[in-house]
Amino acid sequence: xxxxxxxxxxxxxxxxxxxxxxxxxxxxxxxxxxxxxxxxxxxxxxxxxxxxxxxxxxxxxxxxxxxxxxxxxxxxxxxxxxxxxxxxxxxxxxxxxxxxxxxxxxxxxxxxxxxxxxxxxxxxxxxxxxxxxxxxxxxxxxxxxxxxxxxxxxxxxxxxxxxxxxxxxxxxxxxxxxxxxxxxxxxxxxxxxxxxxxxxxxxxxxxxxxxxxxxxxxxxxxxxxxxxxxxxxxxxxxxxxxxxxxxxxxxxxxxxxxxxxxxxxxxxxxxxxxxxxxxxxxxxxxxxxxxxxxxxxxxxxxxxxx
Length: 306
Prior knowledge:
Elements: H1 3-20, H2 22-59, E1 62-66, H3 72-83, E2 88-94, H4 96-106, H5 111-120, E3 128-133, H6 139-145, H7 149-152, E4 155-159, H8 161-206, H9 208-216, H10 221-253, H11 255-262, H12 265-275, H13 277-303
Antiparallel strand pairs: 1-3, 1-4, 2-3
């Protein structure tokens, strides 16, 4: 039997198996898709958490508030000192007058606070420096750097505590989502293994007489196994294609809502899936195909006498 004829018959038997057991094939494909949906949902949440965390980190800043009696020369000297560190992205100088104007603007509708300022009769604010770093991990270094005797005695306080809490909560949420998501994905993988195994077992049982005749007329083991292996690969391929359509369909349809909810971080989410689509779905197809092939091979070894 020529290779071309053998391949043609394997393909013919594959599609016969699929359509003869249509509902079983549909259930198998559905489980494959649900498994991939779970995996991609976990991936999506991780990308969202990383993007939000990155966006927060870009806006996180530590502010050093100087005593009211600190001169402008000392503060600008501290500004130049901080700009000399590679860890510092920018240092913004906020004068006492600017701080007072910003405070009045924020509380323009609060007559009690504004009247209290008038009662004081002088500017209660000192100069300040707003520092943004390359990474939030650099804030500890910057805080330590400002403990130098040259400047530490002039610093009234520094503000970074709230941002640390926000970042810690995002990281903790990301970890919990990862654990829960992968546990759910593992459950669907287990279900997929059971479905594939039973699908192949049922297919072998249904075609046992046909397989016996094929063996009697001299068909080799690979020809007998071929339709079942190709069927498993087709399930994996179709599930991956459907997952690509579902993923980009949802991302496209909900782009506006995602942007409204996550703001600037939404661009990172779309870019990640667009730029890494081949890698993401390619590996998912390979993993699903390997899983289905191993399960198929095990089922045939157990139930097909060779």
